[in-house]
Amino acid sequence: MVKEPLIYLNGKIGEFRDAQISPFDRGFLWGDGVYEITPCFGNKLYRLEDHV
């Protein structure tokens, strides 16, 4: 059984199938995007609380 991926959207963690983005969202209209990389060491996220 494959688990459905979780997403982080608008400050909440939810299920992928429930994600909704307005067609008027600036990122959608203009292609804006922000991402962050969280390093892992020994299969553990490094300082996760600083990234969420």
Characterization of the model:
With about 50 residues, the protein is mainly beta. The chain has a domain at about 20-50. It contains one helix and four strands, in the order E-E-H-E-E. It has one helix spanning about 25-30; strands at about 5-10, 10-15, 40, 45. The strands form two sheets. It has a two-stranded antiparallel sheet with strand order 1-2. The longest helix has 5 residues, at about 25-30. The two termini are about 30 Å apart.
- The rough form would be described as extended
Q: What gyration radius follows from the Cα positions, in whole Å? A: 14 Å
Q: Give the class from helix and strand content and strand pairing.
A: mainly beta
Taken as a percent bin, the fraction of beta residues is: 15-25%
Count of individual helical segments: 1
Q: What is the helix fraction of residues, given as a range?
A: under 10%
Order of helices and strands: EEHEE
pLDDT below 50 for ≥5 consecutive residues: which ranges?
Answer: none
Q: What distance separates the N and C termini?
A: 28 Å
Features:
single chain; 52 residues; mainly beta; two-stranded antiparallel ribbon; two-stranded antiparallel sheet
Explain the layout of strands and helices.
Layout: E1 6-9, E2 12-15, H1 26-30, E3 40-41, E4 44-45
Antiparallel strand pairs: 1-2, 3-4
Give the gist of this structure.
The protein has 52 residues and is mainly β. The chain has one helix at residues 26-30, and strands spanning 6-9, 12-15, 40-41, 44-45.
